[in-house]
Model the fold of this input.
Amino acid sequence: MAKQREHWGSRLGFIMATAGSAIGLGSLWRFPYVTGENGGGAFVLLYLIFTFLIGIPVFLGELIVGRTAQKSPVNAYSSLSNGSQWRMIGWLNIITNFLILSYYSVVSGWSVNYALMSLNHFTMGKTPEQIRSIFDILYKSSDMNLLFHFIFMALTAGVVYGGVRKGIEYWSKILTPALLVLLVGLFIFSVFLPGFPEAAKFILYPDFSKLGPNGILNALGMSFFTLSVGLGILVTYGSYMKPDEDIPKTGFIIGAVSVSVSLFAALMIFPIIFSFGFQPEEGPGLVFKTLPVLFAQLPGTLVLSTVFFTLFVFTALTSSISIIEVLVSNLMELFDWSRKKAVLVCASIAFILGVPTALSGSGGLFPQWKEMYQGDFFDTVNYITASWMMPLGGLLAAVFVGWRLDRQIAKAGFESGSSLKFLVKIWIFLLKWIAPIAVFIILLQQGGIIDFTKLF
Ligand code: PFF
Done:
């Protein structure tokens, strides 16, 4: 007997779960440090343009594929194309999700560690420089990284074990708003730091001469990362939606929220960098090196820091559960597995895949990696998944909806229950032409295949 598909319990539940997936380490951890590495304002401007012209249209396309098919990615792409090879998009999504989950969990593990250290008042009596260096100690420790990677993966598996409504929806509704409130509060503190004007200029003034060598591709990847696009997450979440949900409105709300959180996070973190003499190019440890320095200056350090990092863990959790949910729902459908079996298998594979990442700072595995590739193992997985695999997944999703999917189905998906029906033509144009051409050009340029800057 076919199992009945679970659905979201309410519209708010769906929006919160999708916002919970969108708001995660991408905005809070990755956006600030990649902005720092890519020179600031010009990167931020490209990120905004890509989000609105490419990211959100693909976001809507993925949701529509899922809602129309009521299936997980592999079967959704297959059934909407009469069983053709388009299902390979779903398989690409599966591989990408496994890799992303494997290192997302390592980074989230750092957050669990920082929440526990905060409870122990780890900044007491330390100078900003000493606080900053704690991250480097953690990064180099193989057993600490493994332990917290394991703890976080177990947490993720535990929530998804409970199923869509009980697990994902319940927690997202409570924790997403709590984090947003705290973020705004912290932003206000940052505004009063002496480095704020310099930070605002760094982030908001676009100086294209400072854009890093991979800046354009990284900005595209960042936009997809923060929206969770190009991975089938939205196909999966869309498949739990009922037909009367307003997909375009949801897309704009979530796009706006994720962009705002990214900008708030950067505007909160860069004043600390410029006030305490740190470097914008600190790399993946940026958030962990800087925020505790701010907390140490504020009243109630222990409580503030503990609450912040605890919410940080929860926001990572509402995102990691969306990543694993794609894997679980696909495997349940494809192999007729129970949810529990699928969760255990997926979490175990992702844990094992994450081991080299967790050990990359200590050099415990692949010690020569750094000499042969740009960066350590962690950097490589992070770069390949976010800057190549996600844009590729997004490109294929855009081409599918723009060119292969029956036009009436695409239109009906956009318009059903929507108050923004008048945007349907623009959306189709962006998906059919702008998104594929732009992503394709960027991939060719960054792959060194054609140098478009020399053509003009
Ligand atoms: N969009 C979320 C974030 O920015 O953290 C979650 C996420 C999902 C990130 C999928 C990356 C990803 F590939």
